[in-house]
Amino acid sequence: MDINNKARIHWACRRGMRELDISIMPFFEYEYDSLSDTDKQVFIHLLESDDPDLFNWLMNHGEPADPELKRMVQLIQQRNQQRGPVAI
């Protein structure tokens, strides 16, 4: 997926599981544009993960084996915590 195709990335962020949507959508909407191209690629790679894996990682029930994905999960959690609750 092209890092500049925001419509497609936005679509990929919509997971259909409320817990994931609450974590991923605000991060995309508020943080994606400020990421480096490398981090955008890592974020897109993360979106290619299965929903159960994403859920477990974002809810701290495990972590990705890939260190870059682990770093992105931590970044999502950190930025979402700093921003506070967001209504979606």
TrEMBL record:
Main location, first listed in the record: cytoplasm
Localization (cell): Cytoplasm
Keyword Membrane: no
Protein's recorded name: FAD assembly factor SdhE
Any one biological process term the GO annotation gives: succinate metabolic process
Residues that span the membrane, as ranges: none
Highest taxon, organism lineage: Bacteria
Protein family per UniProt: Belongs to the SdhE FAD assembly factor family.
Record key words, sorted: Chaperone, Cytoplasm
A Pfam family per the record: Sdh5
GO cellular component: cytoplasm
UniProt xrefs under InterPro entries: SDH, SDH_sf, SdhE_FAD_assembly_factor
NCBIfam families: PRK10878.1
